[in-house]
Design a protein that fits this description.
heterodimer, A: alpha+beta, four-stranded antiparallel beta sheet, 10 strands, about 20% helix, about 25% strand, B: mainly alpha, 18 helices, globular
Chain lengths: ~230, ~475
């Protein structure tokens, strides 16, 4: 097809020895393996690096889970949890919600838009400030922390009983990076039964313990169903 | 390479000949030395041994995997991490040191007849290195799972591909390079499909948005380094695809359509290995030009459908995205540079009787594919004329390819043109509501034409290659 430029064209390079390694490449020095291998190990280590940092330096916080369908919860390869603070309706009454950047979608004509909903921009990151429960009434099982306000910036100088958790508004739901769990297969049945019983009697008894670091990043630590603790 | 079966038969025959007196003992000795009759027994024993060893190895591996699976949940997280990492390092190291062993030179000079163990270590080592590259991805996924990180899948593939890329550069291994290009391409594809999470700043986000340039930097040098056309082709497809995504996302529709159609084939057709320093052969120009023709054929074929031009153009003005446009500008500038260089080469070259699809003709086709959508979207809609013009362009390209294939005796070009023209005719027959009788007539004509042309080509021009 390309006989113009014959001057440099290799006729059939696959068959000439251009495609073979030069002889000096036959025995490579060892660093040619170890340097990229270290890079790859660095990549592997980078996956859990922030999680480990948060786990070591973080402060323990307890979150109230939202109701789940126990029959659906432990199906499949991983489980998705949501929390009380994942739901927009639980956060929009808090102080600070109105200050978040809003999405100015015009009200379509003919439809009465609810006045008091403040539609914040999708993909906005903000911080939910949680406060520790006043007193530990039940010594065995921890009590959930309560959200007190939201803030666009990570607030400095919080009192000791408060902490800021970073979340991202993702069309209706707020995500905290605490939604996905991988449950060991042999524990699934047991946990499933516990959850379904707990939800029937007292909803408050299904909580998740997490650790939150200074930047608001959180990792899950364990799952409490009534008085039983399942470590992740 | 001479098979053991042949050697065995030859030995029997040679013994027979010696017994019959056809050859004397010294001649038999010569044959025996040349074909190493004495190693036949040890060779078969070695093969038996290696089969046993590999069978044992497979059983051992299954046993280890089962053991790990049985205890996976019981072990602590640290133990699991240590196990995964040591497996990863061990497989890579074993692969590397096996792969590095120079081929064993047999004692005699008849090495080229009996390359007995040459390359076996190398092959096994390369296989292990490839396995190591796959374990890298598995390790990253398992880490995410163990620490409950719900990351994006495109991030995993991109990071994995970059990790493999480092190893491919360092060891100059084509297989790893191909794997890396596929992984990065897949990661980019998933990132484009996943429209959410596009706001937060991260290095992955930067990589995805700068993919055309990033892919050029990552894979074009690697293709030269490994001298691999496969890497070049996959890399070029990744570059073109990401470039098109950037064009669509970053530009307003009328200009985007024109650049979308014209820039990729121009970039590919103008590609010339000789613009790089230290590259002394045009290794990849044919590949790039084939891809350019393929792209043009696809564009012409798709745009020759009438319904595509039917809907009224609604130029929804989106604000131009300068980061994405930087990509388009860089590659566009490179294209202009390529074509200026091509033009200079064309002018300098003595006039010869052109039998090939010249750069000029391709340039006109590319220009037409840019101008028609631009005119349609920016000035007045011309659905009928545009459809007609693209049918003409498609036909011209197909005929050009066929003519080119005939003139040079190039089978692929010829059949590519045939497929394009047949597809075009069949599509037009189905697209416009014509009578069944006419349809059958067209089909029969097409069928006869294709068969006749094919037979004629194979009879008259296929010998050219054989000579």
């Amino acid at each position: 097809m390309n006989t113009n430029n014959i001057d440099l064209l290799v006729k059939n390079p696959d068959k000439t020895n251009v495609f073979q390694l030069p002889p000096e490449a036959k025995r490579l020095p060892a660093w040619r393996l170890w340097v990229p291998l270290l890079l790859q190990i660095g990549l592997i280590a980078a996956v859990p690096a922030t999680a480990v940092y948060t786990f070591i330096t973080g402060k323990t916080v307890v979150l109230q889970t939202a109701p789940v369908d126990p029959y659906d919860f432990l199906r499949g390869y991983y489980q998705v949890l949501s929390y009380d603070i994942s739901d927009r309706t639980n956060l929009q009454k808090l102080p600070g919600w109105k200050d978040l950047p809003s999405d100015k979608t015009p009200c379509p004509p003919g439809i009465v838009c609810p006045k008091n909903t403040h539609n914040i921009k999708p993909q906005t990151s903000f911080y939910v400030i949680l406060e520790a429960p006043k007193a530990a009434t039940n010594p065995g099982r921890p009590q959930a922390w309560k959200p007190v306000r939201v803030s666009l910036k990570n607030p400095a100088n919080l009192p000791a009983n408060q902490i800021a958790l970073k979340g991202k508004y993702n069309s209706w739901r707020i995500e905290y990076g605490l939604e996905t769990y991988y449950m060991p297969e042999d524990e699934r049945e047991k946990v499933n039964q516990e959850i379904s019983e707990a939800q029937r009697k007292q909803r408050q008894s299904f909580v998740v313990e997490v650790k939150v670091d200074k930047t608001g990043h959180a990792v899950p630590v364990s799952l409490w169903v009534r008085d039983r603790n399942y470590r992740f | 390479m001479i098979s053991d079966k042949f050697r065995r038969e030859l030995r029997e025959q040679a013994k027979l000949w010696q017994a019959e007196g056809l050859i004397d003992t010294s001649f038999y000795q010569q044959l025996s030395e040349r074909y190493q009759f004495n190693t036949l027994e040890t060779a078969s024993r070695n093969r038996f041994l290696s089969i046993l060893i590999s069978l044992g190895g497979i059983l051992l591996g299954i046993g280890v995997i089962t053991f790990v699976a049985a205890n996976w949940q019981v072990w602590s997280r640290e133990a699991r991490v240590a196990l995964l990492l040591s497996l990863f390092v061990a497989v890579n190291a074993a692969g590397f040191y096996l792969w590095r062993i120079p081929p064993s030179r047999s004692q005699s000079s008849n090495q080229n007849i009996l390359p007995a163990t040459i390359g076996r270590n190398k092959l096994l080592g390369e296989g292990l290195l490839l396995l190591g590259a796959l374990i890298l991805g598995a390790n990253m996924a398992l880490m995410a799972q163990m620490f409950h990180i719900g990351g994006s899948s495109y991030g995993l593939f991109l990071a994995w591909g970059i990790g493999v890329l480092g190893m491919a550069y360092s060891l100059r291994l084509t297989s790893l390079g191909v794997l890396s290009a596929l992984l990065v391409g897949l990661g980019y594809w998933l990132a484009v499909l996943d429209w959410s999470s596009k706001v937060e700043f991260s290095w992955l986000e930067v990589l995805v948005r700068q993919m055309p340039i990033a892919a050029s930097i990552m894979f074009v040098p690697l293709a030269y380094w490994c001298r691999s056309r496969v890497i070049f082709a996959i890399g070029a497809i990744a570059i073109i695809f990401s470039l098109q995504v950037s064009i669509v996302q970053g530009l307003n529709p009328s200009w985007a359509a024109a650049i979308f159609c014209a820039l990729p084939p121009a970039l590919l057709w103008g590609y010339d290995d000789a613009i790089w320093p230290n590259v002394h052969s045009r290794l990849f120009q044919p590949t790039a030009r084939s891809l350019a023709l393929l792209f043009l054929a696809g564009v012409f074929y798709v745009l020759s459908f009438h319904w595509l031009w039917q809907d009224s153009p609604n130029p929804a003005q989106i604000p131009p995205d300068w980061v994405l446009l930087a990509n388009v500008a860089v590659l566009g500038g490179f294209t202009v540079f390529e074509w200026l260089r091509l033009g200079r080469l064309e002018l300098r070259r003595p006039k010869q009787k052109a039998v090939d699809l010249t750069t000029g003709a391709i340039g006109i086709l590319i220009l037409a594919s840019a101008l028609i959508p631009l005119f349609h979207l920016s000035f007045t809609p011309i659905p009928q004329l545009a459809t007609f013009l693209f049918n003409v362009l498609s036909f011209l390209l197909a005929v050009g390819l066929i003519r080119e294939g005939l003139a040079l005796g190039n089978r692929q070009t010829f059949w590519g043109g045939m497929v394009l023209i047949t597809l075009q005719i069949i599509s037009r027959v189905f697209e416009y509501n014509t009578e069944l009788l006419l349809k059958s007539f067209v089909f029969v004509l097409c069928g006869i034409g294709v068969i006749a042309a094919g037979l004629w080509f194979e009879r008259h021009f296929a010998q050219i290659n054989d000579e």
